Amino acid sequence: MGKETVKLGLIGLGTIGSGFANLLKNNSSYISEKSGLNLELTRVADKDQAKVEALGFSDSVIASEAKEITENPEIDIVVELIGGLEPARTFVTEALKNGKHVVTANKDLIATHGKELLGLAREKALNIYYEASVGGGIPLIRPLKHSLAVDRICRLVGIVNGTTNYIFTRMAQDKLGLSDALAEAQKLGFAEPDPTNDIEGIDAAYKLMIMSSLAFGSSLEQDRLHVEGIGRVTYEDIDYAREIGYAIKLLVIGERQPEGLALRVHPTLVSFDHPLASVQNEMNAVYIEGDAVGEVMLYGRGAGAMPTATSVLADVTEAARSVVFRPNAGVIESDFTHLPLIPIEELKTRFYLRFLADDRPGVFAALANAFGDENVSLDMVIQKRRVGSTAEIVLVTHEVKEAAFQKALGKVMAIEAIKPESSMIRLLS
Ligand code: HSE
To answer: What separation in Å is there between the alpha carbon of 306 and the centre of ligand 1?
Structure first.
């Protein structure tokens, strides 16, 4: 059988785009042998001409603007690797309107406008492939969309931000403060020069939305999840958590409950017995629980040019198969329902709390009353150390509704002997 040629247009030659161009060059004959498809990079565009020139493309391949790709009748697949909402949304929309499949690594775009863009793709009998938008080189989207889509997923829990996982690992190993660990992550290229989205949990929230849409079959783009970043976690918290058998991780948690979906992103105490506790440095992992399949864990590099380029190239190859061998079919994510989100106040969790108090008679009694009044049961209470006349107290509650805990916390913080700074971190049940 002769080889079929499928023509690609690439918009964006940053870290992932240039990684993808190099991987395609190195692996195209290998892919051709395996799949019977010739993937030809027909046109490339980037607003920074120096980037295009640095990759040594011939003049006939270089496009001066994106519409030479999105409107080009020869091109079958548009690969969008510029990131951000605009102009990416416009380019993707134009590509679909002009009959091209789209491959993207853009989590902001899929989390925010995924439903609308997938709807347009469906209307046109095309598809959007976005494996690289979550978990870099880890196959996550394809397992959720295909292999696991036949089961009812009840929960997914993940470490999907390499920057914050690296920071927590370094804080734990070398007693670093958050800003020193962040500076080290930036020096090693694990953290962006502007790491706001990583530190504040926004990057992880986008990834949770994308995975949850698939895992739970629900559209989410208009919802507001509960998102907390890592800014308030200190080295002391990591150390005390370790003493009681837990690691601290920035987790994304998605659960199907009878009333709807419970989705949240926050720093979390994870028992050392749980496989996610041993995911170190910049690595990512997602732990999925299904009614029939039981537990599945997917682990690997969640960022970086070549791991992410691998996911992009896998998507391009799947799209190319769709171009050549069959009409696009079986797109499970195009039929979303909309399950309500359960507010965090309604969820039941265990809590870790650390605070400072005057070390004098009656403080523990007042504390016990504040928790007792709101029916918050304590599992563990430790007076860690005394500096001058101030004691540091660490406690862990039994499972309790967030609203009751917050009410009790308000009463605790109002006790005159208790200092205003405190650290509160939820536990993974
Ligand atoms: N900034 C992300 C991380 C990678 O640190 O995991 C891109 O999603």
So the answer is: 14
* Strand boundaries in 49-172, DSSP class E: 77-80, 101-104, 128-129, 153-159
158 lines ligand 1 (CB under 6 A): no
Ligand 1: does its nearest atom lie under 6 Å from the Cβ of 94? no
Of 307, 304, 315, nearest to 39 (Cα)?
315
CB 69, CB 78: distance < 8 Å: yes
Expressed in angstroms and rounded, the spacing between residue 269 Cα and the centre of ligand 1 is 21
Mutate to test the pocket of ligand 1, among 109, 192, 308 (most ligand atoms within 8 A of CB): 192
pLDDT (tens, 9 = 90+) of the chain, 429 residues, equals 457 999 999 999 999 999 999 999 999 999 999 989 999 999 999 998 888 888 889 999 999 999 999 999 999 999 999 999 999 999 999 999 999 999 999 999 999 999 899 999 989 989 999 999 999 999 999 999 988 988 999 999 999 999 999 999 999 999 999 999 999 999 988 788 899 999 999 999 999 999 999 999 988 766 679 999 999 999 999 999 999 999 999 999 999 999 999 999 999 999 999 999 999 999 999 999 999 999 999 999 999 999 999 999 999 999 999 999 875 554 456 567 888 999 999 999 999 999 999 999 999 999 999 999 999 999 999 988 777 889 999 999 999 999 999 999 999 999 999 999 899 999 999
Ligand 1 atom nearest the C-alpha of 197 is 1
207 is an active site residue: yes
Q: Where are the domains of the chain?
A: 5-136+305-335, 150-301, 344-427
Q: Which of 207, 249, 384, 419 is catalytic?
A: 207
301 CB-contact burial (10 Å; exposed 0-12 / middle 13-18 / buried 19+): middle
Tell me which of 3.30.70.260, 3.40.50.720, 3.90.226.10, 1.10.1670.10 is the CATH number of domain 344-427: 3.30.70.260
What superfamily in CATH does domain 5-136+305-335 come from?
A: NAD(P)-binding Rossmann-like Domain (3.40.50.720)
Q: Does domain 150-301 have CATH number 3.30.360.10?
A: yes
Q: What gap in Å lies between CA 105 and CA 94, rounded to an integer? A: 17
**Ligand 1 geometric centre to CA of 309 (Å):** 14
Please state at what angle helix 202-216 crosses helix 107-123, rounded to 10 degrees: 30
Residues 164 and 396: their CA atoms lie apart, in Å, by 24
